[in-house]
Amino acid sequence: MHWPVEAATEVLPLPEVNQRRLAQDLRMLAHIGASPGGGINRLAFTAEEREAHSYVAARMREAGLTVRGDAIGNTFGCRPGGREGLPAIVLGSHLDSIYEGGQFDGTVGVVGALEAVRALNEQNIATLHPIIAVAFAAEEGARFGASNLGSRALVGDLPQEELRRLHDGNGTSVAVAIQQLGFPLKEIPTCRWDSRQVGAFVELHIEQSAGLETLRKPVGIVDAIGAATRLRINLIGRPDHSGATSMSLRRDALAAAAEIVLNVERIARETAGRNTVATVGKLNVKPGVITVVPGEVEMDIDIRDIDADMKDIATSAMEAMVHEVARRRGIQERIELLTHQLPSTLAMWTREAIRGVCQEMGVDYRVLPSGAGHDARVMADLAPAAMILVRNKSGISHSPAEWVEMSDIVLGVQVLTNTVLKLDDALAQRRGEGKHP
Ligand code: HGY
Ligand code: MN
Ligand code: MN
């Protein structure tokens, strides 16, 4: 596949990615944790996630990379650069999924990073800076309520207290889940990287909505990445006989929860920022018997925005609303903060590198924010980060119905590969060195 290399001052030997190999890796990964319904189940810190990491580690070795893991299960494939002691260009994403997730979320970025290195190898293109392909562990918050645990360990923002506090629906804490996989919990602080080790980080990811599809643009260049605040609400009412208890005497925890759910939607729609979104995606009712007035509800609220202040305003309004509904209905409420993340604005110069590649390749693109969270948001704390989004034909994600065209994936990986070369030059120039030969 050849791109019309226009407007470039010099015709670069474009390291061409291999579509067949890309498709093969995506197909193999789509089988790991696949359910009969076609969803992917590779939850954080499970055997399925580890199987996917083992598959990618084997492909990294085949590509001649030096492969290593760390104490939280991140997997790295390292390709040396032309000069010792330079910071690396790091590229990658995650392999874990939500329950019944899609086959492209995260995997496209990991396989894309791997393929970028293979393309450079095949065309014998050396870079000045080392290149590290990474598969982060535990990016999704689906199992434990907090996300990006692997990349947070790498930037040194993962307190052990949180690993003991957070637990899944079976009561298994993150700490226990990590230890059950044989990872040494006390060594997690050794996962931390020094910012001098990373020159730039790039994540290729599918768009998780229909923005690019609607705009008919194959590639997105991300300027800001949204973040989440997640609350766990426990509502304690009183279980009562559903036939013998008059309506005026009830303390119905589910009726209170229902009022809260609709108010969460109202607050996100009406009183918060234009990019604020909020979701009650999980709600458990006890005792859950048709003839008993619900006595207890546990519900999780996911509040997101690319603007930290607007997210905080929405969060405060929702907490006040929960207290008001509970008081008025005679319900006891408990609000637990599961996670509070900060949004990131990505570096302009890394964004410009991607834009330059798209213009040289004649690829149409759109600069846009990502409402979905990504490891690039976390990595932006450590080094200049960038994100390339691939058009999502289905406009659906976090669902087995997620579908991305292979031609768009190939284009995204080609942009990623050429961006690595562009960043290799840009990093040298930012140090005052000329373009390296
Ligand atoms: O939940 C998210 O925003 C991402 O898909 N992990
Ligand atoms: Mn996801
Ligand atoms: Mn993802």
Number of helices: 12
Q: Tell me the structural class.
A: alpha/beta
Shape: elongated
How confident overall, as mean pLDDT? 95
CATH second-level architecture of the largest domain:
3-Layer(aba) Sandwich
Low-confidence stretches: 1-11
> Quick one: CATH superfamily of the largest domain?
Zn peptidases
Distance between the termini: 27 Å
Number of strands: 15
Our count of domains comes out at 2
Bound molecules: (2S)-amino(hydroxy)ethanoic acid, manganese (II) ion
Order of helices and strands: HHEEEHEHHHEHEEEHEEEHEEHEHEH
According to CATH, what is the topology of the largest domain?
Aminopeptidase
Could you explain how this protein is built, in words?
The chain is α/β, with parallel strands linked by helices. The chain folds into two domains: 19-226 and 343-430, 3-Layer(aba) Sandwich (Aminopeptidase), CATH 3.40.630.10; 227-340, Alpha-Beta Plaits (2-Layer Sandwich). Helices cover 35% and strands 22% of the residues. It has helices at residues 19-31, 47-62, 107-122, 149-154, 160-165, 174-180, 211-215, 253-271, 308-329, 348-361, 375-379, 406-430, and strands spanning 66-69, 75-79, 88-94, 131-136, 198-206, 219-225, 227-236, 240-241, 277-286, 292-293, 296-305, 332-340, 344-345, 365-370, 385-390. Strands 1, 2, 3, 4, 5, 6, 13, 14 and 15 form a nine-stranded mixed β-sheet that branches. The protein has a four-stranded antiparallel β-sheet with strand order 9-11-7-12, covered by helices on one side. A two-stranded antiparallel sheet has the order 8-10. Helix 3 packs across helix 12 (406-430) and helix 8 (253-271) packs antiparallel against helix 9. The longest helix is centred in the last third of the chain and has 25 residues, at 406-430. The radius of gyration is 23 Å and the shape is elongated. The chain starts with 18 loop residues before the first helix and ends in a 7-residue tail after the last helix. Mean pLDDT is 95; it is low at 1-11. One manganese (II) ion (MN) binds next to loops.
